[in-house]
Amino acid sequence: MIDLREPIYQWGQRVCASVDLVNDGSHPGAELEAVLARAGTEGEIVNVGHHVDANIPVYLVEFAGGVVVGCLEDELRQV
């Protein structure tokens, strides 16, 4: 059994993008490599999941304008 690494951010927490977040193909309505949220854009964590193979938390963040992006911890910072 793997001990899942605890997330540093929690559901409902305000965060902002620490880097430009671009479409990696997971947003079919946007062009590939289109910027979904610019660095500094604030958002709210709406779900926290876990990538089991890599043992890392994955965050769904709703940014201004209603775009929801899956993010890793190094792509976010606390507001």
Automatic annotation (TrEMBL):
InterPro entries: Nitrogenase_MoFe_mat_NifZ (IPR007415). Pfam families: NifZ (PF04319). Keywords: Nitrogen fixation. One of its GO terms (biological process) is nitrogen fixation. Belongs to the NifZ family. This is Nitrogen fixation protein NifZ. It comes from Alteraurantiacibacter aquimixticola.
